Amino acid sequence: MIRLLLTDDHPVVRDGLRGAFTGEADIEVVGEAANGAEALAFVAKHHPDVVLMDLRMPVLDGVGAIRRLTAEFPAVRVLVLTTFDSEADVLPAIEAGATGYLLKDAPVGELLRAVRAAARGESVLAPSVAVRLMGRVREPARGTLTRRELEVLRLVAGGATNRVAASRLFVSEASVKTHLLHVYAKLGVNDRAAAVGEAYRRGLLQPDDGPD
């Protein structure tokens, strides 16, 4: 069961989100918070698996809360859900440690998939967010993956989670997540499955790079 905390300063939004998860056998909304400070207090006491986080809130904003959650509760995954997709919003949230970044106009099915992916330690990005990140990494080598990015992608193709990939490569989970975000941007995709598929299509991965 994925234990989910909803964090948004608008009660109507929280009510709508709670309704979106009603009836999902594997997701339970265990609490709500109206700002980042409330989210931190709830996580410290109840330790949910995933925090769905708005960015612009009073008292403590989303980026500040993500930064503290990442430092103090590294096992908790934070999925941003906001109306803002400007570079000034996206990059600080990702750099602070957000596992994924969705926009509030996302279909319910995409939101459910993203929460499940976040609980597994996987990154999911809204298409417009992937485009923003693509613009940041394209200039020096458009579409060219580094050796480390390819190593991470091969492990992902073999079914490795971020945690397993980090262990295999002797790096942190945050490093694996950053490499994956770069891969998504360079390949023009927004999730792991699409990255693997696109890498095979381009010949960056070969059939023997899949599961052992």
UniProtKB/TrEMBL annotation:
Residues carrying 4-aspartylphosphate: D54
Listed SMART domains: HTH_LUXR, REC
SUPFAM superfamilies xrefs: C-terminal effector domain of the bipartite response regulators, CheY-like
Domain Response regulatory: 3-119
Residue intervals of the HTH luxR-type domain: 138-203
Keyword Transcription assigned: yes
DNA-binding in keyword set: yes
CDD domains: LuxR_C_like, REC_NarL-like
Keyword annotations from UniProtKB, A to Z: DNA-binding, Phosphoprotein, Transcription, Transcription regulation
Protein name: Response regulator
Organism encoding this protein: Amycolatopsis samaneae
Classification of source organism: Bacteria, Bacillati, Actinomycetota, Actinomycetes, Pseudonocardiales
